[in-house]
# Entry
Amino acid sequence: MVPLLLVALLSGRGGSPPAPRPLPADSVCVVAHAGASRPDGDVEMIRRIFLMRQRFWPDGTPARPVNLPATSPVRERFSLAVLGESVRALAPYWDDRYFHGTRPPVSVGSEDALLLFVVRTNGAVGYVDGDRRSELPDGVASLFCVSAPPPTSSEAGGGARPSS
# Structure
């Protein structure tokens, strides 16, 4: 039994995980600080965290969402895929929330800065272009990847407020 296992391991079969499948060109991967377990694939929870409606992870750690600049195409794809609205359509929502004392998530200038923030901040969560999924630094875990839906005509104008 041991020689067969050794042969299988040396031949490259059985021991290595399959390579990740390629992602569509418009994909965005949600990433989080790897210091604690985070729920994989819970798009609704990430939506609540980024809309500042959920302030803590299930384990009690404060959630620290971080955005790319409002002009970033990756942020727009994330906003459409996870938040359900374009960045522009969310502006009135954030104006209202700010008036009531809730600030939007912190923004950083680049994906590299976002990843550094996530590495250094317990509870941090952000997003990067899907092409970066295979090159995440130590301390950053990928929770899930999504593709942005095609833009609709309502995203060109004001848009509706996100529902609870």
Summary: Strands lie at 27-33, 64-67, 106-107, 124-129, 140-147. Residues 25-150 form a domain with the D-Maltodextrin-Binding Protein; domain 2 fold (CATH 3.40.190.10). The CA atoms of residues 30 and 127 lie 4 Å apart.
